[in-house]
Amino acid sequence: MRILVCVKRVPAPGSRISITADGLAVDTAFLGFTTSPHEECAVEAAVQLVEAHGGSATVLTLGPAEAEEQLRYAASVGVSNAVLLATDGADWDPQRTAAAITAAITAIEDRDGVFDLILFGNESADSGGFQVGVRVARHLDRPIVNGIKGISIADGIATLERPTDAGQEVYELTMPAVAGVKEGINLPRYPTLKGRLASKKVQIAIIEPSAKPGGQVLVRLEPPAELTTSTTMLGNGPDAAAAVVDLLEELGVLR
Amino acid sequence: MSGAVLVVLEHDRGTIAPAALEALTAGRALAAQLGTTLEALTVGSNGDSLVADAESFGADVIHQAHHALLTDYNPEAWGEVVAQMITATQPAVVLATGTDRGNEVLAQAAARCDSAFVANCLTFEPGQPGGTFGVTRVRWGGSLIERATVAGTGTGTGTGTATGTGTGTGTGTGTGTKLLTIAHHAVDASPAANPGAGTATVFEARLDPSVARTMIVARVERPAGVTLATAPVVVGGGRGVGSADGFAPLQSLADLLGGVVGCSRAVTNLGWRNHTDQVGQTGTRIAPDIYIACGISGAIQHWVGAMASKKILAINTDPQANMVTKSDYAVIGDLHQVIPAITAEIERRRAT
Ligand SMILES: Cc1cc2nc3c(=O)[nH]c(=O)nc-3n(C[C@H](O)[C@H](O)[C@H](O)COP(=O)(O)OP(=O)(O)OC[C@H]3O[C@@H](n4cnc5c(N)ncnc54)[C@H](O)[C@@H]3O)c2cc1C
Ligand SMILES: Nc1ncnc2c1ncn2[C@@H]1O[C@H](COP(=O)(O)O)[C@@H](O)[C@H]1O
């Protein structure tokens, strides 16, 4: 079983997001970075599948040299191979990203064999294009379903579960196949000390990506309109209970 | 005369998605702005029942895509149908719902046309100087707005061949079809003031049997009952709750109010609650009459999932917490004392 997971490095903002003076990026001067959450779960899913069925998991990212941090993190929880498509750090549009990732996958598969399963996040946390995985799957002519919160594998078939408002949909994709995974499919493990040490030894294959820009062009980022709320203080500690219940009565939620 | 605005109507085996009515409303405004007609597309013959809705929201033409393989939702088949409609009718814009399905179908269509696709738009600014088509869109689940331009089909990107319409030149311009989705809740659904009779016409899709590979093979129906997304009251707990057991008083309060318990991602990551309870960017968007947020700091990724609540009451030891300063009401104090006191007060009033 060969599994590939594509992850994106994103900033981890707290109570607000600041924008750079040119309006083209999130000001990350005071921010840490993380793996986009859906993809963190995709990494865990890949590691669990390899633990159950054997084989190996590979993690791939397109981003700045610093994205090595996210690749090593994936290695520290059980991924054995890592690939960096190194950019100068500016965000690539979804068509360009998908073209570069497709080219890299094709090159890796030509050398090492086909990936039975490729996992993406449902959408990246920052730009949220909802499309890179679908485009890559299309370029490779492999089936893909998004919104996946359950994966099991048997007899060359990946059985995928997708929750909806009405319940759960089940899909059966013949491998090689692709899935867009959502947070909640599992609870990602934390790296062990041993895992962290091992991750330092993992070789990162660096590929120089090249692909033409696509048709979605960022003009400027803006903060959303601030809702100006003035907070009504209902009191301090348990003494505020009467005021809270008055409010619940007033709102008609106390039946 | 430019092509129409074509709205892809999301439905589940013949039941229209609420977001599809929003897309029709947004599409009608955009068609008026472009001086063109509003058309709609239903996929599969079980979608034929959507004609009345499409008409009352102002669609002039309703294309009904038929094929033996279109018995249920299927991302690849639906995306292929949209791509074929683009070739057949050369619309100015294809607009779909900014939902899991809507975004997935347009991504499939865009991949097939090798064209740009912009997800979760909020507003449209066609006809910018230089012929560009501008949009604003959601980033970070709503914490940030992006202004962008979008090229139509036929502009190509260097991989594969452009099979779409039009002959756009360069990025951001192009006369081909623009592929867009409208963010859910960005507009309120409102029927047309003077709807005419729409013309329903069948579109015979030509589908390769290979698209059957992403067909739904089984369903598990959800038992009826309130969910986090629809509950009238949500009592949310964050890291401040302290432990999995610490949620018991929150559950009691939620039960008393006919509501459900929600939580922050910190809580899910700690394994105190299931991810199905998580509110936020990568969890559930809630819209209750009141959200009681206890021991939650109000990080922006949590806030975007909670901000559609009609009223928010924060209970927090820290008066400077983002959740407190952004909410409508606040109690400053230890949730482990405040929540039982609220529950006791409700029970006391009920007893009298
Ligand atoms: C890409 C991305 C996506 C994310 N998506 C989500 C998401 O969907 N949902 C989400 O929730 N988060 C999300 N997060 C995480 C988010 O950034 C925060 O880390 C998280 O929301 C913090 O959870 P919290 O408020 O429970 O914990 P904390 O930030 O630790 O806050 C705890 C609060 O409890 C208060 N408190 C402590 N003790 C008490 C007490 N006894 N009584 C009353 N108050 C007390 C403290 O004053 C504090 O305000 C995401 C992050 C990223 C990077
Ligand atoms: N720069 C990137 N590097 C690696 N994978 C990416 C990158 N951007 C997007 N992806 C993958 O594609 C998915 C969908 O991204 P998007 O279309 O931006 O919402 C993400 O969840 C990732 O799995």
Report the major sheet of chain A: 7 strands, parallel
Ranges of chain A where pLDDT stays below 50 over 5 or more residues in a row are none
With strands numbered from the N-terminus, the spatial order across the biggest sheet of chain B is: 9-8-7-10-6-1-4-5-11
Describe the strand arrangement of the main beta sheet of chain A, using strand numbers: 7-11-6-1-4-5-12
What does this molecule look like?
The complex is a heterodimer of chains A (255) and B (352). With 255 residues, chain A is α/β, with parallel strands linked by helices. Chain A has one domain (2-207): HUPs (Rossmann fold, 3-Layer(aba) Sandwich), CATH 3.40.50.620. Chain A is 29% helix and 31% strand. Chain A is built from six helices and 14 strands. In chain A, strands 7-11-6-1-4-5-12 form a seven-stranded parallel β-sheet, with helices on both faces. Chain A has a three-stranded antiparallel β-sheet with strand order 8-9-10. In chain A, strand 4 (56-63), helix 2 and strand 5 (81-86) form a beta-alpha-beta unit. In chain A, helix 2 crosses helix 5 (193-201). The model of chain A has no long low-confidence stretch (mean pLDDT 96). Chain B is α/β, with parallel strands linked by helices and 352 residues long. Chain B folds into two domains: 5-214, HUPs (Rossmann fold, 3-Layer(aba) Sandwich), CATH 3.40.50; 233-351, TPP-binding domain (Rossmann fold, 3-Layer(aba) Sandwich), CATH 3.40.50.1220. Chain B has nine helices and 17 strands. Chain B has helices at residues 18-34, 51-56, 75-89, 100-113, 248-256, 265-269, 300-306, 322-326, 335-351, and strands at 5-8, 11-12, 15-16, 38-43, 61-66, 93-98, 118-125, 133-139, 144-150, 178-183, 199-204, 216-221, 233-237, 260-263, 290-294, 311-316, 329-332. In chain B, the strands form three sheets. A nine-stranded mixed β-sheet of chain B has the order 9-8-7-10-6-1-4-5-11, with helices on both faces. In chain B, strands 14-13-15-16-17 form a five-stranded parallel β-sheet. In chain B, helix 3 (75-89) packs across helix 4 and helix 5 runs parallel beside helix 9 (335-351). Chain B starts with a strand and ends with a helix. Residues 156-173 of chain B have low confidence and may be disordered. Chains A and B meet through helix 3, helix 4, strand 7, strand 10 and strand 13 of A and helix 3, helix 4, strand 7, strand 8 and strand 9 of B.
